[in-house]
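Throughout our pipeline, every protein is held as a single compact record rather than as scattered files. The record that follows is passed on verbatim for readers who wish to inspect the format:
___
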Amino acid sequence: QVQLVESGGGLVQAGGSLRRSCAGSGRTFTRYTMGWFRQAPGKEREFVAAIWSGGITDYADSVKGRFTISRDNTKNTVYVQMDSLKPADTAVYYCAASRKYRPTASRDYDYWGQGTQVTVSS
C-alpha cells in the first residue's frame, strides 16, 4: 500500500510558476511509476506527466516544454515544476502511483493523492 500526500499549488498569475510535491509512504516507492493528473470543472481527469523509477518521463502535449516532472527516491517524493502557466492550466492536480511501465491512463494508476487546486489568473 502506498499513501500519497501532496503539497504546493495555489494561486498564480499567468506566466508564473508553481512547484508541486507529492510524498509517498512505503519502502516500495521506487518500484512505482509516479504520475500527475489534473481535472478542471466539468472535464474528465487528464494525464499531465509521469516518471518511471528509472527516470524516463512522459508528458501531455499541452504541458510539454513548460512542466518538468522529477523524483527523489531517497525522499520518496515526486515533483512537478510548472512554468509559463496559463489560465487553461487551472485545475485540481493529483499525484498517483502505478505498478505499470509508463502508464498515461488514470485507470492504470493504483494509488492517488488527495488533490490540490491550482488556479492561474489572467
In short: The first strand starts at residue 4 and ends at 8. DSSP finds no helices and eleven strands in the chain. The two ends are 40 Å apart (CA to CA).
